[in-house]
């Protein structure tokens, strides 16, 4: 078995002059849970669907299971399970029937009742797939992507619109599969939850991978280690005579430090210069979501308001 189950080298793709993927080089190791995160429009779906052979990049190479993705044809899907972001379920077919159909198509013998029960879908077994609620449909799509003894499972936002109990179940289930030697690639916007469950991750923005690391090495490798949050701050942040990475929200200031001291010193400056109260300032160790916002967070402008 290959050490790297997916290898993307310099992959690019544009739509009408917009670079959805801009020279992506990324390796996913066999047997890991890999999380791909990024803001809306970052290029995650384009990348995943290129890996799945559903979109054709303009440039670069993608290898999956050690071979070019284009060399597999339909056989690929016996080894690769996919839950697409936009997926339509057939009409007039029940949950039980579709599970049976998938197992037939993938040549696997399974007990649909048992699988349906494992996913907490037993009360819907006789319902048409199209009549399910949004979250229940996603659970069913996940279940379908896992049918068969597939080595690699790529899931595009599997927890989107899913309640907390079911999200916990999904992550537990994915970890169980990882324990069985399967590789799982997930995109999601629930970042801290994904971080807690992953082995490695990459952050994408504007078609590029901007940071990648493992959960274990996250804190030592992230360029900023602490975030400071200042509430009730309505001054113009561009007037601050202090060098620290900043983002301004509506009345909230976010600052990022390589260590705690940098932020503490900034807070002392704010106290002295702007009489900011202790109760309005908080420091915390950086989380995955904080790092995401450090790289991709936007500045808000407060209509010329500056009480300074
Ligand atoms: N079929 C398409 N035709 C034209 N433009 C596309 C197409 N698919 C994606 N794009 C554009 O490519 C860019 C990347 O889109 P993509 O769907 O890959 O992002 P994403 O990171 O998956 O976003 P989200 O988190 O919103 O799902 C966006 O600018 C999007 O508008």
TrEMBL record:
InterPro entries referenced in this protein's UniProt entry, alphabetically: AAA+_ATPase (IPR003593), ABC_transporter-like_ATP-bd (IPR003439), ABC_transporter_ATP-binding (IPR050763), P-loop_NTPase (IPR027417)
Top-rank taxon: Bacteria
GO MF annotation terms: ATP binding; ATP hydrolysis activity
Keyword Transport among UniProt keywords: yes
Family annotation (PROSITE patterns): ABC_TRANSPORTER_2
Organismal lineage: Bacteria, Pseudomonadati, Caldisericota/Cryosericota group, Caldisericota, Caldisericia
UniProt family annotation: Belongs to the ABC transporter superfamily.
Domain ABC transporter span(s) in chain numbering: 6-231
Name used for this protein in its record: ABC transporter ATP-binding protein
Pfam families on file: ABC_tran
UniProt keyword Lyase present: no
Keywords assigned: ATP-binding, Nodulation, Nucleotide-binding, Transport
């Amino acid at each position: 078995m290959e050490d790297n189950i997916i290898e993307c080298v310099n992959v690019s793709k544009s739509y009408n002059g917009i670079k959805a993927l801009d020279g992506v080089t990324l390796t996913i190791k066999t047997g890991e849970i890999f999380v791909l995160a990024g803001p809306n429009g970052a290029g995650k779906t384009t990348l995943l669907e290129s890996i799945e052979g559903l979109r054709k990049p303009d440039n670069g190479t993608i290898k999956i299971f050690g071979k070019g993705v284009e060399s597999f044809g339909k056989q690929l899907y016996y080894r690769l399970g996919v839950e697409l972001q936009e997926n339509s379920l057939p009409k007039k077919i029940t949950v039980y029937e579709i599970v049976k159909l998938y197992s037939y198509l993938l040549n696997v013998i399974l007990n649909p009742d048992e699988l349906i029960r494992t996913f907490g879908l037993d009360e819907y077994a006789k319902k048409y797939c199209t009549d399910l609620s949004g979250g229940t449909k996603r659970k069913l799509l996940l279940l379908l992507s896992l049918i068969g003894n597939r080595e690699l499972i790529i899931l595009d936002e599997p927890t989107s619109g899913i309640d907390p109990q079911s999200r916990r179940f999904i992550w537990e289930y994915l970890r169980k599969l990882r324990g069985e030697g399967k590789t799982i690639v997930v995109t999601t916007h629930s970042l801290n939850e994904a971080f807690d469950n992953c082995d490695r991750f990459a952050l994408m923005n504007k078609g590029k991978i901007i940071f990648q690391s493992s959960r274990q090495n996250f804190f030592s490798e992230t360029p900023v280690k602490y975030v400071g949050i200042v509430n009730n701050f309505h001054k113009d942040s561009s007037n601050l005579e202090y060098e620290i990475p900043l983002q301004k929200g509506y009345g909230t200031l976010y600052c990022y430090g390589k260590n705690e001291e940098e932020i503490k010193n900034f807070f002392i400056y704010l106290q002295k210069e702007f009489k900011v109260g202790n109760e309005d300032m908080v420091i915390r160790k950086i989380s995955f979501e904080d790092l995401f916002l450090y790289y991709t967070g936007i500045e808000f402008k407060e209509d010329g308001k500056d009480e300074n």
